[in-house]
Structures are given as structure tokens and as C-alpha cells.
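Support request from a user on the community tier.

User writes: "When I paste my C-alpha cells into the form, the page sometimes reloads and wipes my input. The last time it worked, I copied everything first. Here is what I submitted, just in case something in the input itself triggers the reload:"
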């Protein structure tokens, strides 16, 4: 997928360019900056000395030297004061300038740390939001794979309100689904342990049906032609139909879904293509499908949403709240240790 959030050491990322959260001197420092300089070797510092520093909100590029990348992009983020001194604008400028430099140097893969979220004191949830918004906007117009690299859990945080809201939604729906199922099983066990003469008329049948009820089977086909006539629209056919109905271009759809262009080409060329569940959901999000339409698209690919799966409940939360931003959804999924959506 074009934008990925990963846990890793940024100095070990095998990409075209990594971004260094540098200070304005570009001569090294603590945190990510110090780690990158140590891993790259003294040659990096020698080149940085020739650059004459860098202003806050901007970036400059050097070679990668002993790092497993071609380039290091040195971005100077703002120090957090109170949010009223242009901090967000400067941070957004850091990301945008870095991405433009990467594009200028023909980089196809770039890895970012969360700039300014360490010793510069930028609140981690706001730093993450600025990063995701800026990178996501850039990727709608350009083909590039971008990683936001998180070293450990303490370096990553979504807003406390969003986390709490999702946590409450998961608790309500996840627990309710299991409690309902458990209660029915318990009631069935209670009835089965009672003497038959104590059952109310029809009570046993009602509980048994509630526990074991299954959907009715489809109409049996009498001939091969009859069977073929019952073949439903495939996932690929539904996807392409929905793109046309939404009057979207292919590129608008797969970029909004955080899907790689090559994967979309495979889906378009093969009507029987079998996607992964996160891929199906990514397209449903990009097309802004309702919950029922999302379930239908999942069914076409052989999947379903389950109240016993946190990933599914989080997806349901965002759809029900009308938030179809795939990047924000992935922020939340990552915070809850779930798989991300996209290709």
C-alpha cells in the first residue's frame, strides 16, 4: 500500500530515502538524528557541514553512505510552544518539502519518523495527524510508497478521544455479541437439564432455533445451464460498477483506497480475482459504501464482518460515523494492533 505505518528502526529501512528529524545546524544531535548520523558514518557529517544549515520547516538532501538507503533527507521540524505560533504549518511544510525532494531525486520509497514528536515536544497525536494528512494528500497526486516508522509504542499515539470512543464502541458491540450468544446457549442448557414435562409448549423448539438457526439454502439447480444462470456478480465486477456509479476514475479510487496501481490492474483484468479482506474493505472505504453495501462487497469476495473480530468492529465504527478517510482508519487500526487496510 502507498502509505504504511510500521514498527522498525528507521536506520535499517531498505528504501530509497529516509527522513532525518534534524536540527537547523544539520550537524547531528540526539534521538533519531543521532542514530542516523552514527549509522551513516562520519561521511554524512562531512557532507552536512557543506550545506550551511537549514531553516525550520524546510529540508535538504544528502547521500546515505553506510545506511541501506540512497539518500537522507534532513527535515527541520518546529519546536512545540502552544500551537499558536505556526507549529502545524511548519511541520506540514517539513513533510511536503521532504516529499518533493524525494520526487525530484526519483525516489519510489521513503521512510519518515514522526518529526518533532521527540525532544521538540510536539504532541504525538497532533504530530501523527499532520504527518498522515500531508502524506495522504501528496499520495493522491503522486505514485510513491511512504512509511511512517514507529520505533516503539510510546512514540505513537492517536487522539485520546478517538481512542476512547473506539474502545467504548468495541466494548459495547464485542461484549454484546458474545453475551447474547452465551445467554442463548445457557438457556438451551437450562432447558435440556429440566424434565421434559416442565417445558412450556414450544419453548424448547424456540430456543433451539435461536441458537442453531441457519440461513435457508439457495434454490437447487436442475441443469448446468440453470446453475450457471445463478452465478452472481463477482467482486471485480461490483467494484468496477461502483466506480462508474460514483463517477470516479480508476486512479481516484485506488489512490483513495491506499492501493497500489499494479494491484488494481490485476483486479481490473481478472473478473474472478480473489482479493484479501483488507483490500476489499479499502475499496469499500474509497467508494464510501454504506455498511450494507460493504457487507455485500465482502460477500462477493467470500468474506463477512463479524462482531467477534476487533478489526471488523473498528471498520464498522468508522463507516457508521461517516469517516471514510483510509489513512485515519489505519491510524486507529495500528493503535489497536490490528491489520491495516489497503493493498
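"...and here is what came back when it finally went through:"
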Amino acid at each position: 500500500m502507498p502509505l504504511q505505518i510500521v514498527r522498525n528502526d528507521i536506520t535499517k529501512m531498505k528504501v530509497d530515502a529516509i527522513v532525518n528529524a534534524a536540527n537547523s545546524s544539520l550537524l547531528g544531535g540526539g534521538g533519531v538524528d543521532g542514530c542516523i548520523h552514527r549509522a551513516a558514518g562520519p561521511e554524512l557529517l562531512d557532507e552536512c557541514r557543506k550545506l550551511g544549515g537549514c531553516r525550520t520547516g524546510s529540508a535538504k538532501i544528502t547521500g546515505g553512505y553506510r545506511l541501506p538507503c540512497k539518500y537522507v533527507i534532513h527535515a527541520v521540524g518546529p519546536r512545540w510552544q502552544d500551537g499558536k505560533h505556526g507549529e502545524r504549518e511548519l511541520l506540514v511544510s517539513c513533510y511536503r518539502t521532504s516529499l518533493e525532494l524525494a520526487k525530484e531525486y526519483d525516489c519510489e520509497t521513503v521512510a519518515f519518523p514522526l518529526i518533532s514528536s521527540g525532544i521538540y515536544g510536539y504532541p504525538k497525536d497532533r504530530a501523527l495527524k499532520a504527518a498522515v494528512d500531508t502524506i495522504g494528500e501528496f499520495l493522491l497526486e503522486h505514485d510513491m510508497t511512504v512509511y511512517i516508522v514507529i520505533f516503539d509504542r510510546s512514540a505513537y499515539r492517536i487522539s485520546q478521544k478517538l481512542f476512547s470512543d473506539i474502545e467504548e464502541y468495541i466494548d459495547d458491540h464485542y461484549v454484546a455479541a458474545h453475551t447474547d450468544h452465551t445467554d442463548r446457549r445457557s438457556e438451551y442448557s437450562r432447558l435440556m437439564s429440566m424434565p421434559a414435562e416442565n417445558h412450556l409448549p414450544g419453548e424448547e423448539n424456540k430456543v433451539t432455533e435461536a441458537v442453531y438457526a441457519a440461513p435457508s439454502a439457495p434454490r437447487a439447480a436442475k441443469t448446468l445451464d440453470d446453475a450457471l444462470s445463478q452465478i452472481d456478480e463477482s467482486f471485480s465486477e461490483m467494484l468496477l460498477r461502483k466506480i462508474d456509479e460514483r463517477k470516479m476514475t480508476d486512479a481516484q479510487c485506488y489512490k483513495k483506497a491506499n492501493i497500489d496501481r499494479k494491484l488494481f490492474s490485476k483486479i481490473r483484468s481478472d473478473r474472478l480475482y480473489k482479493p484479501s479482506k483488507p483490500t476489499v474493505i479499502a475499496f469499500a472505504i474509497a467508494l464510501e459504501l454504506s455498511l450494507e453495501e460493504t457487507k455485500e462487497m465482502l460477500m462477493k469476495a467470500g468474506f463477512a464482518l463479524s462482531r467477534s473480530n476487533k478489526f471488523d468492529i473498528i471498520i464498522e465504527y468508522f463507516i457508521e460515523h461517516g469517516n471514510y478517510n483510509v489513512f485515519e482508519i489505519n491510524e486507529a487500526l495500528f493503535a489497536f494492533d490490528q491489520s491495516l487496510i489497503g493493498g
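Agent notes: The reload is a front-end session timeout and is unrelated to the input. Residues 160-193 form the longest helix (34 residues). Residues 179-189, 196-218 have pLDDT under 50 and may be disordered. Escalated to web team.
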